[in-house]
Amino acid sequence: SCEGVPDWDDEVVATARFKAFSGQRSDWELKFQFWRDLILKVSRQFGLFIIDPVQVKKAWFNRGGITPLCIDHVLLLMHSEGDVVRISDLDDPGIGRISRLLRTVRNLMVQQSVKQEEILETKLVIVPLLKEKAGDVVNILSEGHWTSTCVVTLKKFQNLCNGSNEASAVLSHLSGCGKAHKISINQGELIEGVKVSFSQAALPSISTLDCDILHLLRTTEKLHDQLEVMDQRCEKSKKSALASLKSGHRKVALRHARELKLATESREKCTSLLNRVEEVLNTIADSESTKMVSEAIKTGARVMKDIKISADDVHDYLEELEETIESQKQVEKALESAPYPDTDDENFEEELLELEMDLESESSQVLPATLDTADSLTEMFSELKLGKTKQTLEEQATEPARMKDSGKKILEAA
C-alpha cells in the first residue's frame, strides 16, 4: 500500500518519520502533511472512506514490527482541521431538518474537544473521500433516471455505498447538503428508502407518491428474492428427479417431479405479479417524463409569446434559412466540379475570388437575419428540450426539411 512513497525503504528517513511529534508545529509540519496525505492515499487505494484508527496505527504502516508513534496525533489534528469526523458525530439521516439545524447550532456554540486517546476509540470518516463517494452514488442514480429526483430502497442505496455504515454516512452527508431525504413507511413492515435530488434546486419534501413508489420498489425486491429461492428449488427438484430415474426409483422421481411442477407454477405466478408491479412503476415513470415534456413545451410557448413570434413566423424563418443553405451548397458544388486547365491558375484564382465576393455580398443581405433567427430558434428549441442547444449551419443543412416539419408541429402543439 506504500509503494511509490519516496524514501519509504530508507532506514534513516523512516526512523525520523516514525518518531512522535515534539516541539513547535513548525518543527513537524512537513511530517504531519506527509502522514496526512499518505492516509488519504492508502484509504483511496483501499476504496475506504470509513477507517479504523487502531488498524491505521498498528497495521497500515507496519515496518517489520515497527509502527509510527505519531499516527494518533496525526488523526487528532486531521479531526480538528475537519479532514475526518468521528462516525458517532454524524447526524442521523432520519432526523428532521429542524432537529439537524438545532444540533448544528449547539455544536457551534459548544465545541467538544477530543483528546488524543479518544481519537482511537471510534471509527473515523474521511470527509474528502466521503464527498467523492456521495458524488459517485448520485451520478450512478442519475444515469438511470430522467427526472430531477428519484426514490430508491434503502437496500439498493446500501448496495451502491458498499455497506450499511457507508450508506448511513453518505446519506447523512447528502441530507446535510439538502440533496437527500430518508423515507420510512409502515405497511405491515418497516420499509425504508431514500429520495435523492439531481438538480441544484431544493429537494421537494416527501410526497404520498414517493411513499407509494417506495412500497412498489420494495415489493419488486421481495419478489426477486422469492424468484431466486424458487429457481433454486426447481433446480434441486429437477436434479433429484433425474438422479432417482437413473437409479431406478420411479416413485421417488415422481415425487420430485410433482415438487418441480408446483415450484414451476409458483414461479409463474410470482413472475406474473412482478411484471404487473414493474408495469405500474413504468407507468408512473412515463407519466413523470410526460409531465416534464409538457412543462418544457409550455415554457417554449411562453418564450415565443413574450418575444411575439408565431408558429407561422418560425416556419417562414426556417424556409429562408433553408434557401440560404441551399445557395451555399450550390456554390460549393460549382467550385468543386468546375474543370480548369493547369495553365489557367491565375484565371481560376480570379474566378474563385469573384465567386467568394458574390457569395459574401449575398450573405451580407440574408445571413444576418437568418443567423439571428437560427440563434433564437436553437435557444427556443433548447427551452423545449428538443435536441442540442447549438447547431452549425452545416449540421442544419443535413436535414433542413425535418427541422422545418418537426419545428412547426411542436410549435403548433404548444
Task: Characterise the protein shown here.
The protein has helices at residues 11-17, 25-46, 53-60, 71-80, 97-109, 127-143, 154-161, 164-176, 208-246, 250-306, 311-337, 345-383, 393-397, 400-413, and strands spanning 50-51, 84-86, 124-126, 149-153, 180-186, 190-197. Helix 6 (127-143) packs across helix 8 and helix 11 (311-337) runs antiparallel to helix 12. By secondary structure, the protein is mainly alpha-helical. It has a three-stranded antiparallel β-sheet with strand order 1-3-2. Strands 4-6-5 form a three-stranded antiparallel β-sheet. Strand 5 and strand 6 form a beta hairpin.
Give the topology.
Elements: H1 11-17, H2 25-46, E1 50-51, H3 53-60, H4 71-80, E2 84-86, H5 97-109, E3 124-126, H6 127-143, E4 149-153, H7 154-161, H8 164-176, E5 180-186, E6 190-197, H9 208-246, H10 250-306, H11 311-337, H12 345-383, H13 393-397, H14 400-413
Quick recap of the structure?
The protein is mainly alpha-helical. Helix content is 67%, strand content 7%. The longest helix is centred in the C-terminal third of the chain and has 57 residues, at 250-306.
End-to-end Cα distance: 60 Å
Rg measurement, Å? 34 Å
Strand order of the biggest β-sheet: 1-3-2
Strand content: 5-15%
Count of strand segments? 6
Oligomer: single chain
Secondary-structure class: mainly alpha
Helicity level, as a percent range? 55-70%
Shape: extended
Taken in chain order, the helices and strands follow as: HHEHHEHEHEHHEEHHHHHH
